[in-house]
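Task card 7
Instruction: Convert sequence to structure tokens.
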Amino acid sequence: MREFDHFLAIDWSGAKGERHKGIALALATKAGEAPVLVEPPKGGFSRTDVFEILRDDLPVNTLVGIDLGISLPFNDCGAFFPGWERSPSHAKKLWAMIDAICDGEPHLGANSFVTHPEARKYFRHGKDDEGEHFHLPDAVSRQGRFREAEIAQWRQKCRPVSNFNLVGAAQVGKSSLTGMRMLHQLRGHLPVWPMDKMPEKRVHTGGSMLVEIYTGLASREAAARSGSRTKLLTYADLNAALEAIECPPVDEVGEIDDHSSDALLTAAWLRKAAKEEERWEPRALTAEIAWTEGWTFGAF
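Output:
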């Protein structure tokens, strides 16, 4: 397997505003020591801060994992937005479309897209405010449409939420759409798996790649090995989960916020999982799905 030297896990946020306590970054190295948090600026990271780190300030040969959906469901209907003539043909065109509609919106926000007269019809905006196309195709459940990667997550006993859902604490629609704006602006700077080819490892520069992660997958796998909690709110909880994935403990005690614990655990998990060939070759990942829906790294 291709080796990486650094592993950066990012817990992302699609919330309104500039700076967010919900964005956390943690870095692990191939040496195997405990992961460390990246110190945020005063007030917390902004999405633009993260974009600039990924574009200009990554350690050499880093595997970046970011907790968001890198695309929308396509395979179930043969389109992102069935019936809309502007529906893009693949993920990178989707990123470009979202970024263009949201051009001028600050902080990589995506509100302009979800309120667009046509786009809004495909999203759930509130408990009693569902777009007329949210339940396409007719066979899906009330939870909305899912990508093939999210169906794989269900098989692994995770509980993903449709990227077309913008409601509730577990929703990832807003964070995914803001992330897609960032991915579009990163084109030419950082390849994205599985849409792009794996870059060659380079000794002094480059060689980095970005993958979609789901922090819930890392915590569930750790819990399955050790019986540890999936919600890690103390350093004791975190260290029990780290031990389960053969990582040294973090030298801290007391409480920790769940964004930081998710990032720390997932950075260590990413280091371990990146060595497992089957993670890079999930059985349901075809060339067409890679190009349209993308995939969640680690989902089988």
